[in-house]
Design goal:
The chain is mainly alpha-helical. It has two domains: 67 residues, Orthogonal Bundle (Arc Repressor Mutant, subunit A), CATH 1.10.10.60; 127 residues, Orthogonal Bundle (Tetracycline Repressor, domain 2). Helix content is 76%, strand content 0%. It has nine helices and no strands. It starts with 6 loop residues before the first helix and ends in a 5-residue tail after the last helix. The relative contact order is 0.09.
């Protein structure tokens, strides 16, 4: 403590440090939320400067939290995977396993449509088992697989359906809807009907 620094002023500095950390956390959340909107609207090629402008922060603030554009892209996808994991692991109260899985499938299809360019640009990272993005994707798949098994145990979905096949089907539907004028929800409804057990 310097001769002019009182215990009170030192405490104020400590409190100020907490404020700075809280502000930094808020700024990071704002940047991440803005990036989700900007990338969903403009695709994976959207400029970090546009993200910073949308978030209402300086581009220097953005780069303090996400040192590279790729780091920002990874954070956006990791956040989306975590949201999808939570939706599968913690379905809304009162939903059956079938209803919860159908809700998740719809959310996943919307995610694929909104972030397809983003996922494609990070494909090498998504296959790198050492990356946080790969881990986030894996945890999402595990949660959905558990939900699928519950729905199959109840007789709601075909017993021969596995998680990889389910994800490929939804991915194909989202890609078709994106590249054509077809209604993705209508296509998804047809496919989901076919995934129920034969009566």
């Amino acid at each position: 403590m310097t001769p002019t620094q009182t215990p009170r002023s030192r405490g104020e500095q400590a409190a100020g440090g907490h404020v700075v950390r809280a502000d930094a956390a808020r700024n990071r959340d704002r940047v991440l939320a803005a990036a989700q909107s900007v990338f969903a609207t403009h695709g994976a090629d959207a400029s970090p400067h546009e993200v910073a402008r949308f978030a209402g922060v300086g581009v220097g603030t953005l780069y303090r939290h996400f040192a590279t554009r790729e780091a920002l892209l990874e954070a956006v996808l990791s956040d989306r995977f975590e949201s999808l994991r939570q939706l599968a692991a913690e379905p809304a109260p009162g939903l059956t396993a079938e209803e919860a899985l159908l809700e998740w499938i719809g959310a996943f299809a919307r995610h694929l449509t909104a972030y397809r360019g983003l996922a494609s640009s990070l494909m090498p990272t998504m296959h790198d088992e050492a990356s946080p993005l790969w881990q986030a994707c894996r945890e999402m798949r595990l949660a959905v697989d558990s939900l699928l098994r519950q729905a199959q145990a109840n007789g709601s979905f075909r017993a021969d359906l596995d998680i990889s096949t389910l994800l490929k089907l939804v991915n194909a539907i989202a890609l078709t809807a994106e590249q054509t004028s077809d209604d993705g929800a209508r296509l998804l409804d047809f496919v989901m009907t076919g995934l129920h057990p034969r009566r």
